[in-house]
Amino acid sequence: MFYDIWVLMVEKGWTLALLRGAGVTILIGVLGVVIGLAAAIPLAILRWRRLPVLSQLVDAYSIVIRGVPGLLVIYLLFFGSVDWVQKVASAFGYADSAENAYPFIVGIIAIAAISCAYSVEVIRGALQAVPLGLLEAARSLSLTPRLTFFRVTLPLALRLALGGINNVWQMTIKDTSLVSVVGMQELMRTAAIAAGITRSPLLFYCLAAAMFFGMTAVSQILFNRAEKYFNRGFSRG
Amino acid sequence: MDLSIITYAVPFLLIGAKTTLLIALLGVGLGLPFGILVAIARTSKVVMIRRCADFYCAVFRGTPMLVQIFVIYYGLAQIGFIRHNAILWWLIGDSLHAAVLAVILNTGAYTAEIFRTALLSLSRGLIEAGEACGMSPWVIFQRIKFPLALRQALPSYSTEVAVIVKESSLASTITVLEITGHAKRLMSETFAIMEIFVITAVFYLVINVVCLTALNVIERRLSFEPRSAR
């Protein structure tokens, strides 16, 4: 039995395929979270400032995305965009390259859209948790609103948001597996292909699970360290 | 928005909603007691039991639900022993049963985490008071620990219920036609992607709102405030 596994994993090269899949998973996850966060900060500020119409729109977006399964959002973006992406790409004469890059780009957009909705809530909560006294202190020093925001509010809020961002990241790296159902070649998809070809789904799905577990465990350790670093100088509890 | 699409899609989605609700109800009805049991195991004094429960929670919280559902449905079916055992095969041989099992195991791990923090947050004094009155450990659990922990855990558990409803959508990846499964089929059949998405989203939002309101009512009934006037 061990010999069989050795042949499968090493001689047939499935280890390499799985590792490459894991790399793609991490790439999608990181890009998804970073783009999601970059989009979430302005959106969260809109909600925090309670700008009329805009803040309700952000609210609606975040409620819909958080209330609906990730799978459905991914179906919407993939099936909804196939048509016009083809049109745009062939209009510019890139039909072939669009076909190859398309699942990857839409996959990242889908993951970013989902993580953004959760990040908005995290950052808004953090912005609201910044003590008012500090903002008043900044105003009494006659700092401009812009300076106050970038020097006082944002750095403090990001420290408070760290725990929430960790949760979003953990969720996002697990959500990337959903993109596999529309044909993105990440870890889960690679495992499914391997399971189909070698007819040993138990082995490959368990390996995929172990790899995901490794990713979440390592990132948890890194986040704990980051949290300790950013909380230096603050009393615990 | 084309009205004929609504009249065409809604009946299918209603059928799907039945399956989604079935999975979610079983997930809550069986996952909650199971999660509480695991939480008790995680606070147990026996090291072996605690380690096992911790391990189970770490694995199921650290891996995507999609992997879990695939391991259960495709992976376990590979083992001859399970295929020849009538009860085990009943559990994972059918895609709906496998989906329900995966949802229960997944939510059990998260529920256990919620109840573990709730159990750990109980003040020692109350438990010591129970011990001083000569209550047995079981009576202490039943009369002091559990009611207090339940009240503590309910707000977080209501988010978990919303998660269960959403996670039930993954059953569609192993051919169970629930709301998302039907929605996918309708999308590729009618090409009215946006319309179908909006209708489906309304279904999920309604289910979520109903669940959250119900839990809110329970939460309010369990809290002290309304009756404090007595």
From TrEMBL, chain A:
<keyword id="KW-0997">Cell inner membrane</keyword>
<keyword id="KW-1133">Transmembrane helix</keyword>
<feature type="transmembrane region" description="Helical">
    <location>
        <begin position="58"/>
        <end position="81"/>
    </location>
</feature>
<feature type="transmembrane region" description="Helical">
    <location>
        <begin position="202"/>
        <end position="223"/>
    </location>
</feature>
<feature type="transmembrane region" description="Helical">
    <location>
        <begin position="101"/>
        <end position="120"/>
    </location>
</feature>
<feature type="domain" description="ABC transmembrane type-1">
    <location>
        <begin position="22"/>
        <end position="224"/>
    </location>
</feature>
<keyword id="KW-0812">Transmembrane</keyword>
<protein>
    <submittedName>
        <fullName>ABC transporter permease subunit</fullName>
    </submittedName>
</protein>
<dbReference type="InterPro" id="IPR035906">
    <property type="entry name" value="MetI-like_sf"/>
</dbReference>
<dbReference type="GO" id="GO:0022857">
    <property type="term" value="F:transmembrane transporter activity"/>
</dbReference>
<keyword id="KW-0472">Membrane</keyword>
<dbReference type="InterPro" id="IPR051613">
    <property type="entry name" value="ABC_transp_permease_HisMQ"/>
</dbReference>
<feature type="transmembrane region" description="Helical">
    <location>
        <begin position="20"/>
        <end position="46"/>
    </location>
</feature>
<comment type="similarity">
    <text>Belongs to the binding-protein-dependent transport system permease family. HisMQ subfamily.</text>
</comment>
<dbReference type="Pfam" id="PF00528">
    <property type="entry name" value="BPD_transp_1"/>
</dbReference>
<dbReference type="InterPro" id="IPR010065">
    <property type="entry name" value="AA_ABC_transptr_permease_3TM"/>
</dbReference>
<dbReference type="GO" id="GO:0043190">
    <property type="term" value="C:ATP-binding cassette (ABC) transporter complex"/>
</dbReference>
<dbReference type="InterPro" id="IPR000515">
    <property type="entry name" value="MetI-like"/>
</dbReference>
<keyword id="KW-0813">Transport</keyword>
<keyword id="KW-1003">Cell membrane</keyword>
TrEMBL record, chain B:
<feature type="transmembrane region" description="Helical">
    <location>
        <begin position="53"/>
        <end position="75"/>
    </location>
</feature>
<dbReference type="GO" id="GO:0043190">
    <property type="term" value="C:ATP-binding cassette (ABC) transporter complex"/>
</dbReference>
<comment type="similarity">
    <text>Belongs to the binding-protein-dependent transport system permease family. HisMQ subfamily.</text>
</comment>
<dbReference type="GO" id="GO:0022857">
    <property type="term" value="F:transmembrane transporter activity"/>
</dbReference>
<dbReference type="InterPro" id="IPR000515">
    <property type="entry name" value="MetI-like"/>
</dbReference>
<keyword id="KW-1133">Transmembrane helix</keyword>
<feature type="transmembrane region" description="Helical">
    <location>
        <begin position="192"/>
        <end position="218"/>
    </location>
</feature>
<feature type="transmembrane region" description="Helical">
    <location>
        <begin position="87"/>
        <end position="106"/>
    </location>
</feature>
<protein>
    <submittedName>
        <fullName>ABC transporter permease subunit</fullName>
    </submittedName>
</protein>
<keyword id="KW-0812">Transmembrane</keyword>
<keyword id="KW-1003">Cell membrane</keyword>
<dbReference type="InterPro" id="IPR010065">
    <property type="entry name" value="AA_ABC_transptr_permease_3TM"/>
</dbReference>
<keyword id="KW-0813">Transport</keyword>
<dbReference type="Pfam" id="PF00528">
    <property type="entry name" value="BPD_transp_1"/>
</dbReference>
<keyword id="KW-0029">Amino-acid transport</keyword>
<keyword id="KW-0472">Membrane</keyword>
<feature type="transmembrane region" description="Helical">
    <location>
        <begin position="20"/>
        <end position="41"/>
    </location>
</feature>
<dbReference type="GO" id="GO:0006865">
    <property type="term" value="P:amino acid transport"/>
</dbReference>
<feature type="domain" description="ABC transmembrane type-1">
    <location>
        <begin position="17"/>
        <end position="215"/>
    </location>
</feature>
<dbReference type="InterPro" id="IPR035906">
    <property type="entry name" value="MetI-like_sf"/>
</dbReference>
<dbReference type="InterPro" id="IPR043429">
    <property type="entry name" value="ArtM/GltK/GlnP/TcyL/YhdX-like"/>
</dbReference>
